[in-house]
Write a structure and sequence with these properties.
- Chain A: InterPro entries: AAA+_ATPase (IPR003593), ABC_transporter-like_ATP-bd (IPR003439), ABC_transporter-like_CS (IPR017871), ABC_transpr_PhnC (IPR012693), MetN_ABC_transporter-like (IPR050086), P-loop_NTPase (IPR027417).
- The complex is a heterodimer of chains A (about 260) and B (about 280).
- Chain A is about 35% helix and about 20% strand.
- Chain A is of the alpha/beta class.
- Chain A has 2 domains: about 180 residues, Rossmann fold, CATH 3.40.50; about 80 residues, no CATH class.
- Chain B is mainly α and about 280 residues long.
- Classes of the chains: A alpha/beta (about 260), B mainly alpha (about 280).
Chain lengths: ~260, ~280
Amino acid sequence: MASLLTFQDVSKVYRNGVHGLNHVTFSVWPGEFVAVIGPSGAGKSTLLRSINRLHNVTGGHILIVGEDISRARGRHLRMLRRQIGMIFQNYNLVYRLSVLQNVLHGRLGYMSSVQGMLGRYCEEDKRKAIGILREIDMGDFLNTRAADLSGGQKQRVGIARAFMQEPQILLCDEPIASLDPSSAKIIMDMIFAMASRRRIACVVNLHQIDVAAAYASRIIGLRKGKIVFDGTPGELTDGVIEQIYGTAISQLNVKERAI
Amino acid sequence: MNIDENEQIVKMPVRPFYRHGGKIDVSVKGESPFIRRFLLGTAVAAIGSLYMLHIDWMQLGARAGSIVTIFGKMVHFNMTDIDFTLISFADTFSIMVLATVYSILSGLLFGLLASENIVRNRAVSMSVKAFFTFLRAVPTPVWVLLMLVCFGFGPIAGIMGLSIHTTAFFTRAFSQAFEDVPQDTIDSLEALGATRLQVIWCGIIPSSVTQLIAWIALRFEINFSECAILGMLGAGGIGFAISTSIQNYQYGQAGIAIFLVFLFAFYLERGFLFVKQSIR
């Protein structure tokens, strides 16, 4: 079985000399649910955003189903990007447009410029979009303006848009960081269920270690742009967590102290 | 206590400042005297201008009465040549509409080229901006005069001259609206494989459309008053009707034309307010 995503010795050095990623190497296989954890500034976002070239890397290769996206340009880049879905912390919808229009944006990568501009989505795509929206309980909001939705609903539209792409890989950049705890659980459950039903590999950046351990089949710990842990949730001991975050475990548990 | 020693330790003394005469100074310490200098400069310029123009206050006072006389003549509307006035007014309206619509189209194009988040090349967007800043710096009447030389008297020169200035205005305003679209929105569309044109049409334009409409409505208003002036330069329209009737001492006819301009401008502004309240 071929890997969906491979990082080969990837480095990212910002112009001010800061290392965003430092010789990162790993692979993601079909069906995996990978959680990336680490302190702020460890390079989680940089890692995720370099997968679909929202950031450029300065060294190494990133292979998407065997093709190097870090060197791809123009049409080739778009062809690779449409296989990678992405869900953002701040949803990043076009808020003036309807829920359905936002979800149909997931098809833009499969359409010509002019078709996409004129909004000429085929009826089959529209039905598919409605199907996905029903699957995530958004069937009642098809023609609602995205701006009028709550945070959790906006994120569901974000999820629907990503799955509309029929991606091979799904990237989630802090998908629940802007949500209340109950919405957060619903959203994580949805991402997990929909991805595993379609056997789409997920790479999810998370702040919450407990959430990562609950959903992920594999956890990658980043610290200062380097992978310091790569294993199953079972292997993520307190000692490992302390190593990733560089602080004592008692300092990390805000919850226990508050109670 | 020795005050010098004290100041070495504490930079801002925790005691009130006293002005001359023992009163406490309540103003911000170390505030730049810019505002005071600006006002002073304005006052000096005003006095200097009065001196330069040799304003004769006595004569001004003596002739002030004629304001009343002339306005009195104007409100006695004279309906002769009303058809000419109405046609001129229709000309003005058409010049305004065409100039604004043409400028919207070209302003959209150049506005996109001037936006740093759309044209990733800073040199390109900066030079487009600089070029249109130059066009904007030259007032509309000057452009119309230049176009009058090129195209001869008539509405074409008016449309062209007004379009140049309006395009420059829209380029600036639209590019600002486009640049206000969050990078996140652009990122999310690029991440799913959208082309540059799709990002513009499906993401940037819908996200900024309320701002675009507000600018367009505002410019309709400005362009109407510009049009009224342009006629006096010979570009046709209501301005021409006003200036010719005043030159022929037909104050009643001028009064009607001015009243029409006022009426239309008033309702244009009301319409603009309505547009602003209706878009969201």
